[in-house]
Amino acid sequence: MKVFINNIEYEADSDETIIQVADRNGIKIPRFCYHKHLSVVASCRMCLVEVEGVKFAQPACSTPVREDMRINTKSEKTYDAQKSTMEFLLINHPLDCPICDQAGECELQDVSLKHGEDHSKYLEFKRVVVDKDISPLISTEMTRCIHCSRCVRFGEEIAGNKELGLINRGEFTEIRAFIEDGVSSELSGNMIDLCPVGALNNKLYSYRARTWDLKQHSVISPHDCIGSNIYYHVYSNEIVRAVPKENNEINQTWISDRDRFGYQGIYSEDRCRISQQKIDGQLKEVEKQSILESLNDQINENVEKYSPESFGCFISPQSTSEEMYLFQRLARQLGINNIDHRTNEKDFAYQDSYPVMPSLGANLNNLHEFDNIILVGTNIKTEFPILTVRFNDAVKKNTDIYSYHFINMQEDFDVKKNFVMNNSDLLSVFQDHSLESCRGKKNLLIIGPNITYFYNQSLFLQAIEAFASNINATVGYLTDFCNSTSGWILGNVPHRLPGGEKNKTSGYNTSQMLEGNLSTMLFFNLDPDNDFYNSSALINALQKSSCNIFFTSFTTPIIEKYADFIIPITTYAETDGSYINIEGKFQTFNKAIQADKFTFEGWQALNELCKLNGFDNHSIASVRKDLVSLLSNIDFSKNKKIDNKTYPKNDKSMIHKNTLRHIYSTDQIVRRAKSLNQTNQAMNRQIYISKDLVEDNPKQKTLRIEENEKVFKISDFQIKDDLPRKTIVYSSSFDNKFTESKSTFVSLKK
Q1: Contact, 729 vs 703, CB < 8 A?
Q2: Which of 108, 111, 274, 738 is deepest in the core (most CB within 10 A)?
Q3: CB–CB of 107/32 below 8 Å?
Q4: What is the pLDDT of residues 614-661, one digit of tens each?
Q5: Mean local confidence (pLDDT), 315-327
Q6: Domain map of the chain by residue range?
Q7: Is the pLDDT of residue 417 over 80?
């Protein structure tokens, strides 16, 4: 249909409102309560416009368009209506613009410049509202609040967790949390962006800098496999704030709290800033210019002395695609095939049948098109919070969601049915191939990262594939790190080359390397204290190795104790790079801040080692060109299914010890972000056990478990009534305190 705005003709759809048509065509209409992703309440009345044939000005956000409607956004009637609204809003507002931390980006300030006046006919005392401590991440200035209710609607409609609400009426209306310090949503920081007046503020950023002093840099989130788009705001070469960069294909206008506040980990006290080499049994500082030459000499000496087969190379799936490409290129040109990025896994029997790369199996924008989505081994709320938005949307559009897990985890979207059972019972369900309600429908089955921790991962993957085939479901994956897809595609696995091509000389996987007798071990961008499946096996391997090399951004106790070379490298924010998300989208970014002069960009250090060995010299542009060419030639339709091999058998008699991925211990940056680790979610580091393990003595305070012929004591545990039988569940933050493997079979000792 046709409508006329300010006497200019525009095309419009019958289900659109005036403000939607105006926004699409770049026509500015002031607003406070309206947001394109939230429900319409039309409470602020700032968007009043003149409509021909209607006596009173109409709210543009709630007025649907009709054929030949004539709207005027610049008339005297429109201006007077908006001016009157502004006068009411300013009666109680503190008008503290000169000192306000929102100056320069406050919607109320912007609108008042055009519609405000220096005096009012209403003489009232300014109201004062007591500030609330609602979160370790969000500060409040509630006297500024104009009750637009954006924050309330966001919690209910987008995050799926209503934590703020309106209380009282009239002049005494307040927005507050239902309980003090009660805002704990993993998406809570988005309320800061939504607030048009600075009533809700970023605690880390408040009063750090003025808006006009900041430089904006676009980056990609390194904290999960979704690849959310972010702007970092930089002041004096320091990141002081993160805000969403709109991308409707991925994160829309939202980001998770770990994407917003995780950058704090970059400034951790344990940042690695000096190059070190072990000389005469002691780590000593070495000049940056000479450390790589010394390292290269040592590598070549060990290759000649011990052979390439005695080298083990590990790289973090949090590394950039450029780093991963050059890492495997350097190793293989030296004849080394022992390469792996899957440091958190134990069972690798599946690998030959694994797809070219793990992928979601669907577009994020199209999740609502499935009749059923089946989640296996994942808690979306804590592991992939930004996906909560997508699942909420899918549920509203009649998608049914089922969840299979070893613990009852609450989601912020409606789950039709939760299947909670221990590993053995869960495996039996998939081997039975039954979920009758999904037959004959469009189904998506998503395998979560908790499955990768299982001692019998291959058996699970095989059973899940058969289960999915029986109900005609598309199989997708959610990986535990941001760039696991690149790890597979770019050949950072022992049995495949870049592009998924089979490696004729297959090397050792992580487990085989840790259990073998390696002469040299090289770690790139890994936190060895937390990023390995079995800490004891890692330490044992480090003790056997004659040379341990760490390219790292942070120092850790294990690195300091066992390193022969320490090369400081940049974090994601200090380098140019790219990630490939779980949809297969290749996203590039440039450095947001400059690293100090003693630190290497990871890809440059690897490239320098290539040059020292006479291999190809690369620039960031040439590496990206190679990557784009490689990705364009991959046939993803040839993704394989897990075949029918002989995998570890299902043992129903043993006790299952499972790792629950701790929400803010997922990667080395986030686990160092102090603000995130002060939240209610982070404080939950409880060990849970099923009640059947203490039936004889429910007041028992210590459990002794045997794992790999070693006995560990568990104390301060909590008996969880709804936990499946023969199950122990613990947070990944406890890894090194009483346990060896992340997930395995154990037995009880008296």
Answers
A1: no
A2: 108
A3: yes
A4: 888 889 999 999 999 888 887 666 555 555 454 445 556 678 888 888
A5: 97
A6: 2-90, 126-267, 276-346+483-637, 364-477, 655-749
A7: yes
What's the one-letter identity of residue 271?
R
Local confidence band at 235 (pLDDT 50, 70, 90 cut-offs): very high
Range 364-477 classified under CATH 3.40.228.10: yes
**If DSSP codes are grouped into helix, strand and coil, which group holds residue 729?**
strand
Domain 276-346+483-637 has CATH 1.10.10.60: no
349: left (phi over 0), alpha (psi -120 to 50) or beta: alpha
Identical fold for domains 276-346+483-637 and 655-749, yes or no, is: no
733/687 Cα distance (integer angstroms): 10
The crossing angle, in degrees rounded to 10, of helices 602-612 and 288-306 is 60
Q: Distances from the Cα of 578 to the Cαs of 6, 314, 320, 350, 452, in angstroms?
A: 45, 19, 5, 28, 24
Q: Pairing relation of β-strands 443-447 and 473-477?
A: parallel
CATH architecture of the domain 655-749 equals Beta Barrel (2.40)
Please say if the pLDDT value at position 672 is more than 90: yes
The predicted-structure confidence for 357-385, as pLDDT tens digits, reads as follows 999 999 999 999 999 999 999 999 999 99
CA distance 473 to 467: 8
| Residue 194, phi then psi, degrees to nearest 5 | -75, -30
Domain 2-90 belongs in CATH node 2.30.30.90: no
Fold of 126-267: Alpha-Beta Plaits (3.30.70)
In sequence order, which residues have a C-beta less than 8 Å from that of residue 423 and are 6 or more positions away? Answer: 406, 454, 456, 656, 658, 743
CA proximity to 542, closest of 517, 525, 566, 507:
517
Q: Say whether pLDDT at 734 is over 60.
A: no
| pLDDT tens-digit series, residues 97-116 | 888 888 888 888 888 888 77
In sign, the C-alpha dihedral spanning 705, 708, 710, 714 is negative
